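Key result, reporting period 2: structure in, sequence out.
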């Protein structure tokens, strides 16, 4: 009988020791969690969220001035080599003309060309740049060849295909050939631009990084408090 009592007593003592160890371990974990909560509270308080200013995306008119002379054309050709500049120009064009406008490339070209070239200056240009004979005095006049400005032509093409991805480079060439052949008529006509595009896709809102960070910290803080 005494042997059984001793065995029971031994088991009880062992259980008490295990409970004490568990309580000690739990107490240590609580201390660690409290330390984490204090750290997170400090981090949360240190985050200062300032009202974010709306991002102003450059307009096409602010990125490109219509070329009025060969020097302007050379300058734009040099700028058009830069990928970031081209990206900004193409996106600015997309905000004007919108997306998903298949079959409307030629109309978009006419809306776009005045951003790139001054109408009066276009009378001094041709596609090939060959000399032209003036009937009035039978003299030769050297035209400025637009086809030699490959970076401008490619950027112009990208500005159109962002809205109408079916419009080809051959169609761009055909447009410019027609445009310079009627340049005098266009120079004398009233210039009109469409400032808004049909079917423009909605612009996605950009989330504020600081607000997201604060939300994450608050979520972690609530999780830790629930564990206590």
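The corresponding designed sequence is given below.
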């Amino acid at each position: 009988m005494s042997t059984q009592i001793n065995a029971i007593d031994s088991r009880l003592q062992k259980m008490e020791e295990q409970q004490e160890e568990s309580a000690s371990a739990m107490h240590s974990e609580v201390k660690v969690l409290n330390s984490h909560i204090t750290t997170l509270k400090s981090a949360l308080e240190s985050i200062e969220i300032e009202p974010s200013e709306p991002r102003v995306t450059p307009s096409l008119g602010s990125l490109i001035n219509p070329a009025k002379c060969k020097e302007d054309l050379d300058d734009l050709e040099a700028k058009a080599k830069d990928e970031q500049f081209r990206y900004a120009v193409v996106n600015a064009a997309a905000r004007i003309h919108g997306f998903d406008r298949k079959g409307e490339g030629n109309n978009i070209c006419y809306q776009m060309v005045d951003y790139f070239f001054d109408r009066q200056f276009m009378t001094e240009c041709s596609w090939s740049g060959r000399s032209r004979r003036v009937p009035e005095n039978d003299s030769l006049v050297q035209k400025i060849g637009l086809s030699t400005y490959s970076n401008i032509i490619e950027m112009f093409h990208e500005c159109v295909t962002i809205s109408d991805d079916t419009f080809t480079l051959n169609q761009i060439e055909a447009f410019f050939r027609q445009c310079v052949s009627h340049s005098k008529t266009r120079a004398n006509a009233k210039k009109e631009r469409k400032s808004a595009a049909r079917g423009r896709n909605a612009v996605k809102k950009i989330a504020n990084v600081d607000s997201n960070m604060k939300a994450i910290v608050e979520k972690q803080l609530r999780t830790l408090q629930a564990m206590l």
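The CA atoms of residues 126 and 181 lie 8 Å apart. Strands lie at 125-126, 131-134, 139-142, 144-145. This case is discussed further under Risks and Mitigation.
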